[in-house]
C-alpha cells in the first residue's frame, strides 16, 4: 500500500482515503480492502491488534489490514473484484485436474476392498473432496459455471468408472487367491478309505445267535406285521380272551392287521 499523510481522517489523506468518515485502502497487491467502520485502525495479520490512527508507518508496514475498534481481523478483507473471470475459471479447472490425478494415483495403490471403500469416501463420498470442490462451482459467476461444471462432471464420471473397474479387479484377484488355495491336483492318488465294519449291535446279535445255535436252537425270521387270526385266534386266544391282556397290541390302520406280539 502506498504512503498516507495525516490530513483526511484525523488529519490523514492519501491513496485509498475516500472521505473523512470512509477509508477504502488498497493492499500492496492491489486488492481493495472493505471498510468496516467510520473509525478505522490497523490490525496485524497474526491477530495482534494495535488500535490507533492511520499513519505512514502503519500503511507501509507489511501485514497490516483494515479493521474496527470492536474486532481485530487476522485476514485481509478483499473483494477479489480485480481477479478476471478467466483466471478464476482456470484455477477451478486446475484444481479439478490436480484432484483427478491425485485420486487416480492413490487408487492404483489400493490393495483390498476395505481400503477401496475408504478411498471412495475420501473422494466420492457426500463429504468427499470432489463434493467440496463441486460446491465451489455454484459460487462462480454465471458465465464461468458451464465449463467448470462440465469439467467437474467429467472428473466425477472418470473417478466413478475407475472405482468400479478397481472393484472388479480386486474381486477377481480375491477369487483367484481362493481358487489357488483350494486347488486340487487330480493326478494325485485319492484319499484312502478304510474298510467298513459291522455295527456293534449286529456283532452282539451274531454272538448270541452262535451261542443258541450251539444249544440246538435255530434262527427263524418272520414278518413284522401279522393278521389278528394268525397272531391270536388260531393260537386259542379268541377276542376278549384274558391272555390278550398280558401284552400291549399295536394295530395298524387295518383293524385286522397288527404288529406281531410273540413268535409261538
Notes on the structure:
By secondary structure, this protein is mostly helical. Helices cover 40% and strands 6% of the residues. It contains seven helices and five strands. It has a three-stranded antiparallel beta sheet with strand order 2-1-3. Strands 4-5 form a two-stranded antiparallel ribbon. Strand 1 and strand 2 form a beta hairpin. The N terminus is likely disordered.
Relevant terms:
single chain; 264 residues; mainly alpha; 3 domains; three-stranded antiparallel beta sheet; two-stranded antiparallel ribbon; elongated
Low-confidence stretches: 1-83
Mean of residue pLDDT values: 71
- Total tally of structural domains: 3
Helix count from the secondary structure assignment: 7
Sheet/helix structural class: mainly alpha
In percent, how much strand structure appears in the residues? 5-15%
Helix fraction by DSSP (H/I, runs of at least 4) = 25-40%
* N-C termini distance: 129 Å
Q: What is the count of β-strands? A: 5
Query: In sequence order, what are the helices and strands, one letter per element?
Result: EEHEHHHHHEHE
Strand order of the largest sheet: 2-1-3
Oligomer: single chain
Envelope shape: elongated
Strand count, sense and barrel status of the largest sheet are: 3 strands, antiparallel
Compute the gyration radius: what is it?
A: 49 Å
